[in-house]
Amino acid sequence: MTEVFRFGLVPIACRARNEDRSQVALSLNNNEVNIYGRAASEWKLQETLQGHDLRVTGIDWAPSTNRIVTCGAVSLLCIYLTFSCG
Asked: In this entry, which stretches build a coiled coil (predicted)?
């Protein structure tokens, strides 16, 4: 069964999920990465990652290390170490 969730009116530029798919990292076409966690039947914002001056163009979430790697419009690469959400 398909589920539909809304994260606002702004287009999602890129996204990645953690290993068990209980969290998702989204960039809403800006310079931030929002981490959402699944709470019952909805997604709740848990943390906002910052570090880019311009728009985030790519996100990857490493399953074994729980690190998030992002790249930006000016080829800036950010690595966010393990963080605690929830």
From this structure: none
